[in-house]
TrEMBL record:
Protein's name in the database: Mitochondrial inner membrane protease ATP23
Superkingdom in the source lineage: Eukaryota
Gene from which the chain derives: ATP23
Low complexity: bias regions: 1-25
Role description: Has a dual role in the assembly of mitochondrial ATPase.
Key words, A-Z: Hydrolase, Membrane, Metal-binding, Metalloprotease, Mitochondrion, Mitochondrion inner membrane, Protease
Gene Ontology CC annotations of this record: mitochondrial inner membrane
Length: 251
C-alpha cells in the first residue's frame, strides 16, 4: 500500500477460505441416470441439475476445481455478499446513514463507487485512501455487524481527512483518527469485546480503543515500531477520544 494515504484496519477474527479436500465416497446422481435411447428434455434438465449439484459440491469440498478456480468462485460469493450488505446498510444503518449525511455536509460526499468491495489479505477488514475512497475487505467480515462497523470506521477516517486535513505521515494525526474511528464506529462495543476475550470490567472501552488504534498506527509505513505507535496513541488519546464529532456521543 502506498504510504501517506492509506489506513488499514484489522478484522477481529480473520476468516480463512482454504479449501478442504476430504475424500468423497458417496455415489453421484449420474449413476442413476436413465439409459434409454433418445436424449429427452427431461434428461437435459437432469443433466443441468446434476451440473449445478456438482458445482455446489465442488465449492464445498474443493474437489474438481483448481485452486485458482476455487478462489475465483469464493471471491464472487464474497463480493456478492459484501455488495448486498453494503446496499442494505446504506439504506438501513443509522450509523452509516449519519456518516454519509455528514460527509455530504462537510463537502466530501461519499459516492457508491468510492465504497468498493474487494479481496484483501486475511489480516484486514477495510482501508481508506484519500485518492480512491474506501475499500471493504469482502473476505474480512465475520458478520453484517462487522461490515457495518468497518464502513462507519472508514467513513470517520474520510470525515477526518475532509474536515481536519490530516497529514497521514504524522503518527499523531493518524493516531487521532484511529482513536476516533475505533471509539465511534462500534468497533469496541461490549459484545465485540466479550467475543474477543478482552473484556475487563473497568475502562474496557478505552483500553479497546487504545489497543486497536495502536495496531492500526503500527501498520503505517512511517511508523518504526509498535512502541512508537503506542506512544503516538497515548500522546493524543485524551483529546481525540473525547472529540466525538460529528456524533454527539459514542455510537
Ligand atoms: Zn482505521
Amino acid at each position: 500500500m502506498a504510504p501517506t494515504t492509506q489506513t488499514q484496519d484489522a478484522p477481529l477474527q480473520p476468516t480463512t477460505t482454504t479449501p478442504q479436500t476430504p475424500q468423497l465416497t458417496e455415489s453421484s446422481p449420474a449413476a442413476a441416470a436413465p439409459t434409454q435411447g433418445g436424449a429427452s428434455e427431461k434428461e437435459a434438465k437432469e443433466q443441468k441439475a446434476f451440473e449445478r449439484w456438482t458445482k455446489t459440491l465442488s465449492l464445498i469440498t474443493g474437489i474438481g476445481l483448481s485452486k485458482e478456480e476455487f478462489q475465483t468462485e469464493i471471491n464472487k460469493i464474497d463480493r456478492k455478499q459484501c455488495e448486498l450488505r453494503k446496499e442494505q446498510l446504506i439504506k438501513t444503518s443509522p450509523g452509516v446513514r449519519f456518516m454519509m449525511n455528514n460527509l455530504v455536509k462537510s463537502g466530501c460526499p461519499l459516492t457508491k463507487n468510492m465504497l468498493e468491495c474487494g479481496p484483501c489479505d486475511n489480516t484486514k477488514s477495510g482501508g481508506f485512501s484519500k485518492d480512491h475512497g474506501i475499500l471493504l475487505c469482502q473476505n474480512g467480515f465475520f458478520s453484517k455487524k462487522h461490515q457495518e462497523h468497518t464502513m462507519i470506521h472508514e467513513m470517520i477516517h474520510m470525515y477526518d481527512h475532509c474536515v481536519f486535513n490530516l497529514d497521514w505521515d504524522n503518527l499523531r494525526h493518524h493516531a487521532c483518527s484511529e482513536i476516533r474511528a475505533a471509539a465511534l464506529s462500534g468497533d469496541c462495543n461490549w459484545t465485540r469485546e466479550v467475543r474477543r476475550g478482552h473484556y475487563t470490567f473497568t475502562k474496557q472501552h478505552q483500553e479497546c480503543v487504545k489497543r486497536r488504534a495502536a495496531i492500526s498506527v503500527a501498520g503505517n509505513p512511517k511508523c518504526p515500531s509498535r512502541d512508537a505507535a503506542e506512544k503516538a496513541v497515548n500522546a493524543v488519546f485524551e483529546s481525540c477520544y473525547n472529540d466525538t464529532r460529528p456524533f454527539d456521543e459514542f455510537y
